[in-house]
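Supplementary Note 2. Why include the ligand at all?

Several targets in our set were suspected to adopt different conformations when bound, so apo predictions alone were not considered sufficient. For every target with a known small-molecule partner we therefore ran a joint prediction. The input for N-carbamoyl-L-aspartate is given below.
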Amino acid sequence: MQKLTITRPDDWHLHLRDGAALKAVLPYTVRQFARAIIMPNLKPPIRSVADAAAYRDRILAAIPEGQQFEPLMTLYLTDNTSPDDILRAKESQFIKAVKYYPAGATTNSDSGVTDIQKGDRVFEAMQQVDMPLLLHGEVTDNDVDTFDREKVFIERHLIPLKQRFPNLRVVLEHITTSDAVQYVLSANTIAATITPQHLLFNRNALFKGGLCPHFYCLPILKREEHRQALLQAAISGNPKFFLGTDSAPHTRTSKESSCGCAGCFSALHALELYAEAFESVKALDKLEAFASFYGPDFYQLPRNTERITLSKTTWRIPDEVPFMESGLVPLGAGQEMTWQMV
Ligand code: NCD
Ligand code: ZN
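The joint prediction is reproduced in token form.
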């Protein structure tokens, strides 16, 4: 196959940041995707409808001239979020989901939820107005091994949560384990996003020839058997699994540091990365539904009608793209790719 034409996809999990960083990264996403679910972990986070409206305006203002893009906004759940905040979010129409970060789990999550049970009144309201809950599904307990934090989150928090709120629509974000795949398959009203890094790399990438901070994201890359399980889920044609890049830009200096930030930047070449992953298991024919159909179906939004084309071309992922004061290293920098969006 030399060309692959598919319905224009959407990114169901994206970090755009703000200010100059937003202006630098947004054009990459706009080029590939029609819409994206925008993560609210700014400093300070997006906690109210007013915060989300203002952030949405800043995103709209940063879209390059003449291009189309729809930011789908989210609210950041804190210990102080009220059921009323949820009703107002629902009424806004532009807020499509609420994001749960366990306090301290990842970049800018200090205001996250300290105890998931404290959110029950809010989850009740979300269930009632059918507002999806997006989960960063990792425990933060220091006594739980970093590589087990997703599995333990599912056992300790997600299973009980779904028992308390069986009709709450949940997206387990950026899943990384076969445990997550199994759980999502077994439960109702739950879907999952899968990132390009978790489809293409296992945890060896973090240590190949030395410590490689540009492969460090959260949840952290796992063993090969987990990567295989994710790949099988992504190509399965099951609508519970869809595309969410978790593209999360950090400057080179904040990644290459004695305490480097978590996050992989993939907005530059997200579709190409997914195409490589799907082709590696001869499943390119399954890419369109994963990238362009199952996400809008879950969010009860229309599928896009425009189409985009990838062509078979060899090119090298650049070592860096311009970003703030120290540049931005794309996922897989320097590696050869065989698909390119035209
Ligand atoms: C994200 C970021 O940098 O905002 N980092 C990451 O490793 N994925 C936060 C997140 O989604 O966990
Ligand atoms: Zn994320």
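Residues 8 and 308 are 5 Å apart (CA to CA). The pocket of zinc ion (ligand 2) is lined by residues 13, 15, 39, 246, 248 (CB under 6 Å). Comparable summaries for the other entries are listed in the accompanying table.
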